[in-house]
User: What shape does this take?
Amino acid sequence: MNANTAALTPRAAAKVELARYALKGAERILYGEVIDGLVRVTDHPACGRGRSYLVEPALKCDAHLALKALVADYTRTARRVNDIPMRTTLDARVEQVELARYALTRGERVLYGQRVDGGIRVIDRPARGSGRAYLVECGLEHNGYGALRALIDNYTRQAGEHDEIPMLVRLCERHAARG
Assistant: This one.
């Protein structure tokens, strides 16, 4: 990120270069522009010809660290997937790691850990094919590895005991408790 990022204030109106990155021999530029007190981040070809992408339509001007994290994550993702992140699928943009697998009568499922915007979340998805995904937990980065390990162990244990997706069991229990 350039020192120009600090120049983004609610009074600024011009585009400010936030970062440059190269893909397949072509250089691209991330620009920030303040519009109505919010920062709009766009991705443009450096040569001026070609498709531009809206990366972030409305980031608060006082969120300097969020802007810095957005730019760092975007350029890191571009290098990792070797493409413009806004053009790739969501699965390619989100860094995920398989944490555990568990088997149910109706099929195998996988718990994935994903890093999204600096936060860690756990998702439960079918191992193969399509099917519903469940958000199991988010915000685990504050609790450490021990908490993550305990969550995984408890979740897979519950799946085995009930032969059901634990998040589905919890939803049914909450619904039954309401009446």
